[in-house]
Design brief:
CATH topology of the largest domain in chain B: Immunoglobulin-like
Structural class of chain B: alpha/beta
Radius of gyration of chain B: 20 Å
CATH topology of chain A: Methanol Dehydrogenase, Chain A
Oligomer: heterodimer
Order of helices and strands of chain B: HHHHEEEEEEEEEEE
Strand content of chain A: 35-45%
Low-confidence stretches of chain B: none
CATH superfamily of the largest domain in chain B: Cupredoxins -  blue copper proteins
Number of strands of chain B: 11
Largest sheet of chain A: 5 strands, mixed
Number of helices of chain B: 4
Helix content of chain B: 10-25%
Distance between the termini of chain A: 89 Å
CATH architecture of chain A: 8 Propeller
Distance between the termini of chain B: 46 Å
Shape of chain A: globular
Number of strands of chain A: 40
CATH architecture of the largest domain in chain B: Sandwich
Largest interface: A-B, 68 and 68 residues
Shape of chain B: globular
Strand content of chain B: 25-35%
Amino acid sequence: MPARLRGISLVVTLLLAACMPPLERFPVSREAQPFDAANARLAGTAPPVAATVTFERLVNARSEPQNWLTYYGAYDAQRYSPLDEIDRGNVAQLRPAWIFQSGLIGLVADPSDYAFEAAPLVVDGVLYTTGPDGHVWALDARTGGMLWHYRHAIPLDVPLCCGNVNRGAAIAQGKVFVVTPNGYLVALDAATGKPVWTQVFADVRAGESASLAPLVVKDMVLTGSSGGEYGVRGHIDAFDIATGERRWRRYNVPKPGEPGSESWSGDSWQRGGGTAWITGSYDPELDLVYWGTGNPGPVFDGSVREGANLFTNSIIAFRPDDGKLVWYFQMTPHGMWDYDGVNENILFEQGGRRLLAHFDKNGHLYVLDRTNGALVLATPFARADWGEVDPRTGHVTVRRVPTPGGTEICPGPAGAKEWPHAAYSPRTGLLYVPVVEQCGTFKTADTDFGESLPYWGGDVEIVKERQWGHVKAFDPLSGREVWSWRGEHPMLGSLLATAGDLVFAGEPTGAFSAFDAHTGEKLWSFQTGSGIHSSPVAYSIDGKQYVAVHSGWGGWIKGFAPELYGAPRGDALVVFALP
Amino acid sequence: MPLSRLTLLVAALVLTGCEYMGLARPSVVEQLEPPVVRLVNELPQVDRPNEALVTRIYATGGLAHARLGDDGIMRGEMWARPAQLIWTPAIIVMPEGGRLELTVHNPDMMKHAAFMPSNGGHRLLELPPRSSGRIAIELDAPGFYWFGCPVGNHAGRGMLGFIFVEGGVPPQARLDRPPQPQPPED
């Protein structure tokens, strides 16, 4: 075939290939249905119980022991239930009342990714809870029957340092508030599960995300940003409950000229971290919100951000009306160990003083006067050789730092306590804490910053051979350890204290257990089938007490329990009651 | 054939808008990178059922843009290509977050279904052989989402597609800081 003809033949072939006959169309005869149409037929709405949840009821949440109205159960973050039907004498008879299986679908997870981390809310017989990847459910708290299900569609390309997770919802004035991994705050109608308004509060293109349960204060709903491993600038935002309009945003890392800005060298404040990924607590009489802030960025290399790096790794107390800082206490100045200061701030009164207790990732329990931030005591609650903390001033003397060749330091990057929450019982006057006993080999390395990419300034490897966990009880005034129970793995579930003088704790093995709040004796345990990395709650219906816990292992397993990477996954809410 | 006629033929082909000719434009050619070219050259060997694979490479079915209507609703069309186990297009681009109405045609002799993401929950459009249906979904956030055919693991065999929602983070949600260094070009 002559060359020219071959050329023409090729062109014609291309023409035919490129201009394929059109694909067939048919008259449209079908409309799409909700995927869970079968469930939708069984359910659709919840009773309008949330319509009467006002700020006043949230302030007095503990006077409604049948309900669990806020993330921590009450503004004081004690994670204490006044219910006492289940007690030390009968807890051995506790058994499952019902199980809700949520059934995740599709491309959401790598082997460690999603986890069920939520604390359910309960309002007058209706249970509201959240899952990873934008899921929210309303359930009949007596039977486990689904009342409604909402899922906010989440794109795949979201920067998630440590798992596709969500820790729960907030509720007020007939609305359920939940954040999505890509930084949307969604207000749902609590009766129907339909969106009322949405607001974007985080910048995924800058590496931000969101995972916390929002906090309702007055007529506002407060959120905090995640993404401390991406060189972001952490912030807390407040939105109008009714309209979704933004009221204010406060950054936890100051700009040049603002108080605290002298603690940052050069332009390092721009990537300074200080995220706010755990829900704060609130004292309505002092009108102060207490919130913990995350690690500075880059995580391990402090040489590019000389100074104390305020207000990272700190407890900040601010006014809810405008976010204005009133006082702060920095646990780990110039952090180099990933010791976020985000953990809960438990508010309680002892000895006539208004106190705040905080178990920090850096391995120390801090008790502060919450009116002014003055330190009452600081004491280690686990192995902590990174530095010494003066028990009266909180001043840090650093002993061990990350190096290019690697330094073994305790605690590891998960901290001596990861985010799962401690509890306080006003009956025993004791604090209860889930402990991670772990060390890591911390390395520094030069890291060029690129917006949206991880900004670690090094790396860390867990020392796997020597890690375990505890549930411990502390006297908050003396700092004395009252009892300690040792578990085979780091403890990664929040604790729940009840007036039955019990402390409930989920274990990474999937066991859900009850301990004697006075002695630490394990009185009961049930295997839920998947590791627990969530926050159990208690509620009652017609006088019958229930205890609910999410079972669903996952999240940042490589960081806090690498020996359980690949352990069975789960996506259940397991609810217990006496026969 | 005189050269002028060949030129005329080529010109006619270009004018017909056939995609091969359109793809030869300089702005496309200059994007070609050796790894991508190698990939495209090797795809025909693996993008068909063979001893090792019973699947098609995802996105084989190409890309199409949804059109934004005057009523603010985006619309598009999609086909289950007969006996191929791929969606055409396999990538649907929405110019912004919002409501997408997709008309889905199944000219195939087998049953398919479109399992699509949407705010509120996934939506399912069942498509008996030789039928068409309509699906309306709501996606408000920029980014990319997956969809698939859940019948007989067709998604695993190639009927997995993606929706790209264009747009950025709204100004009020962005961080207050000067422009930052971006990830380096590859």
